[in-house]
Design goal:
5-stranded parallel sheet, FAD/NAD(P)-binding domain, alpha/beta, 346 residues
Length: 346
């Protein structure tokens, strides 16, 4: 059987596009390497909460249950994604990794479960593919516990002693604030942190962003370009409070290491017992054997998910069309656009 569409990835992007494909007469299949829908959320650190409230954390067609002004936990999101897949009876095949993708007369997906042909392919694996850890981490002593934030669960994993969190995004901020409740924490950041309140005048800041048009600002607009070129803010003031009371000590960018010492941009050094690398993720499209759709950095070349190869699409990329393109509250807009485009080209 040659499918009309195969979707690679069964996370929020893959489920969103599955919702719109289900409304067509196209035959399609969603392939995911995980063992359960929502698994990637379930595996994140225990205290993880979204910085978008329930009211701005839903996929198309099904609202996330919960108090609209409260912030959902990772368990809520994991359960919601499972419910979403079941509600719309989306055809998902789990435990299936794509080993390579090529195109001849049609697309051929070679997977751990065999070969799958398709007329169209939507790559919906999102931006969080392979954990990124700086190479100089290998210079640290094996006596120092090192974890990427994707492997961190809670402070009970850590050795006794001080902890360094490297990376000043929202995950790094949440993790540093949590650990600082019971031990000294250093937080290494590459730029000055900007804090924004989660609520203003008893409404989520995302409600205000929505009313002001920020959430819908196109990547090519002046507003979109301004936001894109700024570092992401830290939502909430938990970390700021811990910095103020001295429980979290800010350090500049970590640049090197040698056995028990980590060196920073200001020529200072530090000895710690634990390092948590909240340094994000890197993309890996080495399995995609269609080189003309990747740039010199190995990243997708696209216009709002459309590529130069007829029938090949990307979904769930950061700033695919706007800031929320890789988030629960925004990925559905791009999913609808791609399915509409795919139908026009059929």
């Amino acid at each position: 059987m040659i499918y009309d569409v195969i979707v690679i990835g069964g996370g929020q992007a893959g489920l969103s596009v599955g919702y719109y494909l289900k409304q067509t007469k196209l035959s399609f299949l969603i392939l995911d390497k995980g063992s359960a829908v929502g698994e990637s959320w379930k595996n994140r650190y225990d205290s993880l909460t979204l910085f978008t409230p329930h009211s701005y954390s839903s996929l198309p067609g099904l609202l996330l249950n919960g108090e609209e002004k409260q912030y959902p936990t990772k368990e809520e999101i994991s359960d919601y994604l499972k419910l979403y897949a079941n509600t719309f009876s989306l055809p998902i095949q789990l435990n299936t990794s794509v080993l390579n993708l090529d195109k001849k007369d049609h697309f051929i997906l070679n997977t751990t479960k065999g070969e799958y042909p398709s007329r169209n392919v939507i790559v919906a694996i999102g931006p969080f593919q392979e954990p990124f850890i700086p190479e100089f981490s290998q210079l640290l002593s094996e006596n120092i516990l090192q974890l990427h934030s994707s492997k961190y669960k809670n402070p009970n994993q850590l050795k006794r002693g001080d902890t360094l969190v490297v990376g000043g995004g929202n995950s790094g901020a949440q993790i540093a604030a949590e650990i600082s409740m019971e031990r000294k924490v250093y937080l290494s950041v590459g730029q000055q942190l900007k804090f924004l309140p989660q609520n203003i005048a008893n409404r989520s800041i995302f409600w205000w962003f929505d009313k002001l048009g920020v959430l819908k600002a196109n990547v090519h607009s002046k507003v979109g370009q301004f936001i894109k070129n700024k570092p992401d803010p830290i939502f909430g003031f938990e970390l700021k409070s811990q910095v103020t009371n001295g429980r979290v000590v800010l350090k500049p960018r970590a640049i090197s290491a040698n056995k028990n010492d980590i060196f920073f941009y200001d020529n200072t050094r530090l000895k710690v017992s634990n390092v948590i690398w909240s340094t994000g993720f890197k993309s890996d499209y080495s399995w995609l054997k269609i080189p003309e759709v990747l740039d010199e950095k190995g990243l997708p070349i696209h216009q709002r998910g459309l590529t130069s190869i007829n029938g090949l699409y990307f979904l769930g990329l950061p700033w695919q069309s706007r800031r929320g393109s890789a988030l629960l509250q925004g990925v559905g807009t791009d999913a609808k656009y791609i399915v509409e485009k795919l139908l026009r080209d059929e």
